[in-house]
């Protein structure tokens, strides 16, 4: 697939979704895999425990019919988050680390495990919403740095113990500082367990870049500062991340990977709302 950022889309599958502010991927909800006419809302949001909610709100596009990247941006939407007791309106701003490069955020609500959060987003005749509970986080027991097959690289290994209240569903994400990239899901980073007290060991593979001519390297470079997050999510949210992971792993392109439908929890549109119980560790790769 070829994309001209200053021009029009080339040949791509017919459903457009920008997954979690990281990359573009052709996908929709399973029960609604249809040609996207008229435009519908795409909401991609996450809300870490102890952190603040952030959302990308955009519109679908039919690439075969041509269209500019700017056609999907919604700069003047109304996005709110509700914790069952109060509602907060989020603020929009340009953010070049995201794709599309605009996000909604607020510092007026902090994620509390056990609460259920509702997000709504409206723009003209487009209206989408989602409801999901934020699970309690699982502590990271340790984050190890081990040798890689390449001398200049190192592999990260995360260890944790599954909680009593299984089943427990997780995905790993990383933030690589000074990379110019937003926090992103790790390759092969999803894990689900039904066994309480299980000692879990997971390799941490770096995300695939949104657009890059570089060969993908799974390990981390010496000197990089990396934050690894263990995100516990509801089963419905996990199903999205697991399908997304499989899609990017087995596709030739991490940008527009497939025209298969992804699970989603968005009513009235496409995407994912991901409140998550999060624990993080930061290391300097040496």
Structure description:
- This protein is mainly beta.
- The protein is 6% helix and 43% strand.
- It has one helix at 235-250; strands spanning 17-19, 23-25, 41-48, 53-59, 78-82, 87-89, 91-94, 102-105, 116-123, 126-133, 140-147, 153-161, 168-176, 184-193, 199-204, 220-221, 225-233, 269-284.
- The strands form four sheets. An eight-stranded mixed beta sheet has the order 7-8-4-3-18-17-13-14, covered by helices on one side. A four-stranded antiparallel beta sheet has the order 6-5-9-10, with no helix packed on it. Strands 11, 12, 15 and 16 form a four-stranded antiparallel beta sheet that branches.
- The model is unreliable at 1-36 (pLDDT under 50).
Calculate the terminal CA-CA distance, rounded to whole Å: 37 Å
Kindly state the mean pLDDT as a whole number? 83
Which structural class should the secondary elements be placed in?
mainly beta
What is the gyration radius calculated from CA atoms? Answer: 18 Å
Q: How many strand elements?
A: 18
What is the 3D shape? globular
Order of helices and strands: EEEEEEEEEEEEEEEEEHE
Describe the strand arrangement of the main beta sheet, using strand numbers.
7-8-4-3-18-17-13-14
How much β-strand is present in the residues? 35-45%
Q: Tally the helices: what do you get?
A: 1
Model regions low in confidence, pLDDT < 50 over at least 5 residues: 1-36
Give the helix level as a range of percent.
Answer: under 10%
| Largest sheet properties | 8 strands, mixed
């Amino acid at each position: 697939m070829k994309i001209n950022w200053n021009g029009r889309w080339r040949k791509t599958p017919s459903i457009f979704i920008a997954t979690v502010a990281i990359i573009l991927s052709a996908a929709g909800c399973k029960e609604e895999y249809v040609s996207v006419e008229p435009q519908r809302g795409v909401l991609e949001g996450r809300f870490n425990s102890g952190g603040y909610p952030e959302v990308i709100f955009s519109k679908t596009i039919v690439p075969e019919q041509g269209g500019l990247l700017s056609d999907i941006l919604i700069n003047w939407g109304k996005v709110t988050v509700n914790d069952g007791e109060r509602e907060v309106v989020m603020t929009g701003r340009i953010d070049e680390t995201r794709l599309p490069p605009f996000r909604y955020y607020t510092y007026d609500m902090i994620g509390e495990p056990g609460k259920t959060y509702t997000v709504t987003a409206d723009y003209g005749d487009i209206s989408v919403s989602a409801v999901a509970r934020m699970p309690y986080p699982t502590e990271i027991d340790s984050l190890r740095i081990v040798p890689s097959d390449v001398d200049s690289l190192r592999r990260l290994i995360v260890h944790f113990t599954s909680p009593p209240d299984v089943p427990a569903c997780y995905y790993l994400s990383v933030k690589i500082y000074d990379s110019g990239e937003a926090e992103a899901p790790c390759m092969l980073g999803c894990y689900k367990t039904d066994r309480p007290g299980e000692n879990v060991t997971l390799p941490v593979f770096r995300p695939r870049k949104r657009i890059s001519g570089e060969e993908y390297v799974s390990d981390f470079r010496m000197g990089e500062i990396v934050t690894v997050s263990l995100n516990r999510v509801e089963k419905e949210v996990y199903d999205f991340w697991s399908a997304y992971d499989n899609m990017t792993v087995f596709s030739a392109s991490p940008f527009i990977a497939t025209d298969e439908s992804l699970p989603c929890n968005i009513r009235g549109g496409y995407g994912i709302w991901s409140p998550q119980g999060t624990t993080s560790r930061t290391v300097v790769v040496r």
